[in-house]
Write a structure and sequence with these properties.
444 residues, alpha+beta, 2 domains, 6-stranded mixed beta barrel, 4-stranded antiparallel beta sheet
Length: 444
């Protein structure tokens, strides 16, 4: 029997018991819809998590520190045995890291607590250096004002908490000027008899800054300790040459040149999250410690994998129940069509033709049920997104898409539907093929 004839006959048979076959197909559709809805929820949550962290600029960055620094692990103070011989995290090291493949930029961590004056009133807060690339960070989306006009601009962005301390009407601050007081590091010469540099002096300085923006969220999600305070361009912060904690430690070390600037840590930004492991390994080969957020998120990735597995299992339960309905429908069709099967065999239909006919009917139920289930699952997901958006708006939070259906899931769902129905049709098809045509023709 040709494929076209088998398909046409299968469609005709399905139309004869329309209500029962529609209900069976609906059962398959509900099973596929539950599978799609559950898996799409897991995929959507993982995508939202990755998107948020990706836009925060955390997944494509590496924090580099020197092995000279003391590590605190598990509450115990630990130092490396060769800490005195470890490489210093200085300008030559920074230039060497900058030359590594897939590295976009390398900038130091500059932060200091100081006094700012606005309208002759003092305010003590933290000042943080930001690279110009941070303008793409999600924290600056929808900010009041604008980002820094240039990497070295004498401008400042205020966090909303500090801005409210200065003036409750924060809109009045944009375009105004404040003054930051800081301690500048200046090298000393001639401190010994031979006139060599032995350290540096600390000089009080002031820098006027124009307020250009106000943000409500901490850059990088607050993971880099940039909570509250004010933000200035990183290149401006380097030019100010503010005294850092690493400068104080370097003076007391015999292994460090007091006149040479070292960094507590450097932030390395790569071309993408996929390049972080290779760059991180290269930095470690240079003799430095390297940490990325991917190290901390491996357990979260395992969590999402297990979550997707369990959601898939729960979603498949309805599909398993629907497969029992398919078996019941096809077995009932055998009982009702025994005489028809006998006539088919009497005029030359083989067992393979009979089995193929029932497989075609099961496959059609699976195909129609799969497509309908995907559409139903899509509608459920849209309802979930709509309800979630309303809830988040009531909580004064931006709406999020917690449900996502990729194309591969659509194709996989239809394929699973057809596969499950074909497996469910194995027993009815085999039973129909084994019917004795003489006994089938005598059946009333």
């Amino acid at each position: 029997m040709k494929f076209y004839d088998t398909a046409e006959l299968a469609l005709r048979n399905l139309r004869q018991s329309m209500l029962r076959n529609v209900l069976t197909t609906l059962g398959v559709a509900v099973g596929i819809a539950s599978l799609v809805a559950f898996l799409s929820l897991g995929i959507g949550l993982q995508s939202m998590f990755s998107k948020r962290l990706g836009s925060s600029g955390l997944f494509d960055t590496i924090i580099v520190s020197s092995r000279r620094e003391i590590r605190i692990d598990g509450g115990r103070r630990q130092t490396t045995s060769d800490r005195a011989q470890a490489r210093a995290l200085d300008e030559p090291a920074r230039a060497e890291i900058q030359k590594l493949p897939n590295v976009i930029e390398v900038f130091p961590e500059i932060r200091f607590l100081t006094e700012l004056r606005f309208a002759d009133k003092p305010f003590v807060t933290g000042v943080f250096g930001l690279p110009h690339s941070a303008r793409d960070n999600e924290a600056f989306e929808g900010m009041k004002g604008a980002f820094f006009s240039s990497p070295e601009a004498s401008e400042v962005i205020l966090h909303i908490d500090f801005a409210r301390d200065v003036d409750q009407n924060t809109d009045n601050l944009l375009g105004k000027e404040l003054v930051v007081r800081y301690a500048e590091r200046q090298a000393l010469a001639g401190g010994t008899a031979d006139g060599e540099d032995v350290g540096y002096s600390v000089v009080r300085r002031e820098q006027p800054l124009r307020i250009v923006g106000i943000v409500e969220s901490e850059p990088y999600g607050g993971f880099r300790g940039m909570r509250g305070g004010v933000y200035i361009p990183i290149q401006l912060a380097e030019r100010l040459n503010v005294v850092q904690a690493s400068d104080l430690r370097s003076v007391t070390r015999d292994t460090a040149d007091p006149g040479e600037r070292t960094y507590t840590s450097l932030t390395v930004r790569t071309t993408g999250a996929a390049q972080v492991p290779s760059v991180q390994a290269a930095i470690k080969k240079l003799g430095f410690r390297a940490f990325s957020l991917q190290d901390a998120t491996r357990n979260l990735q395992r969590f999402f994998a297990v979550l997707d597995l369990f959601l898939g299992i729960f979603g498949s339960l309805a599909l398993a129940v629907a497969s029992l309905g398919i078996i019941n429908t096809l077995v009932m069709a055998i009982l009702e069509r025994r005489r028809e099967i006998g006539v088919m065999k009497a005029i030359g239909a083989s067992d393979r033709d009979v089995k193929g006919l029932f497989f075609a009917e099961a496959g059609l139920i699976g195909a129609v049920g799969g497509v309908s289930g995907v559409l139903l699952g899509w509608a459920i997901g849209r309802a979930i997104n709509f309800g979630t958006a309303i809830y988040l708006r009531r909580q004064d939070l931006p709406p999020e898409d917690v449900w996502l259906v990729p194309w591969w899931l659509v194709l996989a769902a239809v394929g699973i539907s057809i596969g499950v129905t074909l497996v469910a049709g194995l027993y009815p098809a085999s039973r129909a093929a084994k019917l004795d045509p003489v006994q089938a023709l005598r059946y009333e």
